[in-house]
Write a structure and sequence with these properties.
The complex is a heterodimer of chains A (254) and B (120). Chain A has helices at residues 2-6, 12-42, 50-87, 91-107, 141-153, 198-205, 211-215, and strands at 112-122, 158-161, 164-165, 172-175, 178-181, 184-186, 190-195, 220-231. Chain A has 254 residues and is an alpha+beta fold. In chain A, the strands form 2 sheets. In chain A, strands 3-2-7-1-8 form a 5-stranded antiparallel β-sheet, with helices on one face. Chain A is flat and about 95 Å long. In chain A, 25% of the residues are buried. Chain B has helices spanning 3-19, 28-50, 56-80, 84-119. In chain B, helix 2 (28-50) packs antiparallel against helix 3 and helix 3 (56-80) runs antiparallel to helix 4 (84-119). Chain B starts with a helix and ends with a helix. The chains are: A alpha+beta (254), B mainly alpha (120). The A-B interface holds A 1-8, 10, 12-14, 16-38, 41 and B 1-2, 4-17, 20-23, 25, 28, 31-32, 34-35, 38-39, 41-42, 45-46, 49-50, 52, 54, 56, 59-60, 63, 67, 106-107, 110.
């Protein structure tokens, strides 16, 4: 190529081409830096394309989550075993353990079984977008909250949605096309299992102009009674950072 | 003499790389497009040189205008909801490949010609 450019006679071009090459090098390096820092922010390895790595990272994270959940269940089972062993040593520890197991059951840390209802909520796919708002045909986070609220009010003792146990600190919220329950995404159809008096629970849901009545306008609702409904244990974190129990002494002194 | 532009390229690259200068992530795709436009101009310049049609003013103005225009057109496209970024990538990418193949052809022809000259 050298002899080709030298044909041009003037040497002025060399300076300009060099200058442009310098600019191009700077542009490419700026690109490299920017892409690198973006990958760093996303926690992706260097030299990776963006989307495939995001998918890969998501999958990996999910696998890790599954494994950690299994570990949690394992450790909780072991703890319970130790508690049982300890309780056999003396009567005090036995009664203490009984109380502990009760509290854990109330917290939702153990699976529960009993009579109750199974409510299934699903998007109404047969309906088309028409003169009514198409949002009506999709199950929303507030539908789930309404049903759960109604079930608690009717005396439900344990509730789960798509095998995510509803506990005191559970949040049900909308994230894109999914619902987040206990920080984990889950999608329609939603199977809500509730343990309690089946007649009470079903009756509460079916109050005219009540929760289900209003939902039936758009989405598909199915309520079944059952005698042996199983609700899984809560598998999320139980760490408490800020709240501390108030010592019993202080009660009533002020 | 060909080493001077190459040295310039490496120098510019190293300079920015070592200063770790970055731009906000939102504008990363525009910067990438500007770099692609720069590559296109450079290869176009080399091709023009091989064809004996190289003009410094055309090359310099083309380089500057193409990089700026590509980035700002893509930005405009994003503002009005048309993916002009993709159109620019296709157009510029196509031209880069075309120029590269032409450069390769000229170079091969020249190599063949000089070989014949050596024989005779």
């Amino acid at each position: 190529m050298n002899q080709v450019f030298s044909r041009l006679g003037s040497k002025n071009w060399l300076f300009h081409v060099t200058l442009m090459c310098f600019l191009l090098g700077a542009l490419l390096a700026a690109n490299l830096n920017t892409q690198g820092s973006m990958r760093q922010q996303l926690g992706l390895p260097a030299g990776s394309g963006r989307v495939p790595w995001l998918v890969e990272a998501l999958k990996e994270q999910r696998d890790t989550n599954e494994k950690l959940k299994a570990t949690i269940a394992d450790l909780r089972a072991k703890t319970e075993q130790y508690e049982q062993e300890l309780s056999q040593r003396s009567r005090e520890s036995s009664s203490l353990n009984k109380e502990l197991q009760e509290v854990k059951f109330l917290l939702g840390l153990t699976p529960a079984r009993g009579p109750g209802v199974i409510v299934t909520l699903d998007d109404n796919k047969s309906k088309r977008v028409g003169d009514i708002d198409s949002d009506l045909y999709i199950v929303h986070d507030f539908d789930l909250r309404n049903v759960v609220n109604e079930l608690w009010a009717a005396g439900a003792e344990a509730i789960s949605i798509n095998d995510h146990r509803i506990v005191a600190r559970t949040a049900i919220r909308c994230v894109g096309p999914n619902a987040m329950i206990n920080g984990e995404p889950t999608a329609a159809p939603f199977v809500i299992k509730a343990i309690g008096n089946p007649a009470d629970l079903e009756g509460a849901l079916n109050i005219p102009n009540g929760v289900v009545d209003l939902m039936r306008v758009g989405i598909k609702v199915k309520i079944e009674r059952g005698q042996f409904i199983e609700v899984p244990a809560f598998t999320g974190a139980t760490t408490v950072k800020y709240a501390k129990p108030v010592p019993l002494k202080q009660e009533g002194t002020n | 003499m060909i080493w001077l532009p190459v040295a310039g390229l490496i120098f510019g690259f190293a300079l920015v790389l070592l200063t770790r200068w970055t731009i906000p992530g939102d504008y990363a795709s525009y910067l990438a497009l500007a770099a692609l436009a720069g590559l296109d101009s450079l290869f176009g310049g080399i091709r023009a040189g091989l064809e004996g049609k190289f003009h410094t003013d055309v090359f310099v103005s083309g380089f500057v205008a193409n990089t700026l225009l590509a980035a700002s057109l893509a930005w405009l496209g994003d503002q009005i909801g048309v993916d002009l970024l993709l159109a620019a990538v296709v157009a510029l990418g196509g031209r880069v490949f075309l120029n590269l193949s032409l450069i390769r052809r000229y170079w091969l022809t020249q190599a063949a010609m000089s070989r014949r000259r050596d024989v005779t």
